[in-house]
Amino acid sequence: MEKRDKGSSPMAMMMGSRDENEDVENTTRTAETMLRLVPMALCVSALVVMLKNTQTNDYGSLSYSDLGAFRYLVHVNGICAGYSLLSAVIVAMPRASTMPRAWTFFLLDQVLTYAILAAGTVSTEVLYLASKGDTAITWSEACVSFGGFCHKALISIAITFVVVICYAALSLLSSYKLFSKYDSPVLTYPGKGIEIATFQG
Amino acid sequence: MEKRDKGSSPMAMMMGSRDENEDVENTTRTAETMLRLVPMALCVSALVVMLKNTQTNDYGSLSYSDLGAFRYLVHVNGICAGYSLLSAVIVAMPRASTMPRAWTFFLLDQVLTYAILAAGTVSTEVLYLASKGDTAITWSEACVSFGGFCHKALISIAITFVVVICYAALSLLSSYKLFSKYDSPVLTYPGKGIEIATFQG
Question: Could you tell me the residue range of the domain that residue A61 belongs to?
């Protein structure tokens, strides 16, 4: 209904609210650019904290690179920072959103969200095992000897989860921007047909 | 453009393609119901395989419940099976898709996708650690002594990842169904204004 009303008076829409629409467009574009720059900054900080995470004491030496999950976290944060910067630059440019562009953003945002979520959860599990250990499987509580290492890892993981929230919002936004270009899948349903007939008659 | 053309001739649409639209609607509803029943079946199998996963030998006894990640996998698979069944029943009913319903499906599908992905990745990490061990952190390779346990866990995790793929598709579908109800966020952009003016004049 709403769509048809808007479509039936494009002249009125043009005359009255052309500037207003441009303002709204600029505001949303700025907001989206910000929403992409924030995770970039967070990814870089999570990456730096984890990269510098090495502890050496009487028990030996422990580095982030000794654990596959933390290596994966560093890699994904690096990729995520790069993608966030690139996508922020593209979004910031005042250009019409085309269909292939909307699809690319949608798919990449989804993939990045899944990848960063996986990195966060996997690292959390490793940190959990390192702090609690597992007696059944005879895994020791590494955090007792390497407290500083675990603390820094926790900071890095916490930052990563903030990135996850940002990316969940971004993938919601990009799916809205993509699918709002399409028609609703349901064209007829009970009651609608009568409504249209009344509207016409 | 396409939306306006459709909107301008609802009578023609009603007369010619009412039955056709209903057929399309029924087909998509059946397809979505199937897409929700498949992960239900898979969740139940992943859950059963993991629940029965216990091995006792000379080294001791190892059960899925000894590992937090595998317990989480069982819980999420249970919730996922229940939600899949419930949502399949709701989708199967021939009723108009309202806005609150579309939002509920969208949000729950997203949350379930993230939860099941987290369960899959976390369990994969634990299985990886159990099979490879970690010398730096002095974690033993438990799969050497508990081969059968690890094999069953691998099957359960593999099934869980098929569920992840189903749910990624479902969240794509539900975001399409939700956001296609909304107007495109960009109302005016370079060139569009002129196009509308020509259309009107």
Answer: 35-200
